[in-house]
Amino acid sequence: MPQPMLLSIVGLLGLAVGSFLNVVIHRVPEGRSLVSPGSHCPHCGHAVRNRHNIPVLGWLLLRGRCADCKAPISARYPLVEAGTAALFVAVAARFGLSWELPAYLYLAAVAIALAAIDLDVFRLPDAIVKPSYAVALALLAGAAYLGDNWPAVLRGLLGAAAMWLLFRTIAVFGPMGGGDIKLAPLLGFYLGWLGWDALAIGAFAGFLLGGLAGAVLMAVRLAKRKSRVPFGPYMLAGAFVAVFAAAPIAGWYLDLLTTAA
Q1: Which residues contact 20 (CB under 8 A, 6 or more apart)?
Q2: In the chain, how many H helices and how many E strands?
């Protein structure tokens, strides 16, 4: 399949998935069904018309307001849809039409949902994280079988164990959320599959991004030293830094060491 066609298909898929993720982000933290009731305005209760459920375009047609009561509709809805599509396209460009692609598209979808929920309610729900272990193992084990790449599965399992040990150790000496500890092995599995450099860079990037964000928030006085800041979004962002750029970052670092020596 030509790459432009693949990216177009995956982009459209990302828009549809992003629309569903808006439901996940809103309902999972409240323990509500993802199926019933259907999409409706939280202000007036009227069902959303099919033509207004079109990702991004529906929000634009409505000019960000409910068709019935004219209450404002958060801009986060089209941003989640567009952001999911963009991340899906980036993942497809990274992996191409490969056996690994479905697994990393799933990770992209989970990352969008978990990051948004953690920012909203400071939680990484078990209802999303725990099933993701089984899905990741099934998809990547299937990719290993079809691509004859079983060493990647073993490396992924070792990466999961290493990330769990790292986060459990940190939790002993400082604050670390239980959701973060549960998420860490999942990311370790995905990153370990790609290689040891991806695992190391993904873990480090998460802490680096989290530290930088915390410093910026304190500098602009939006947070204090003891303020509660969700770490999940930075873990996920760090993982995707490794997914997309582990090889060039590792190469740059090795060149830096060689030059310094």
Answers
A1: 34
A2: 9, 0
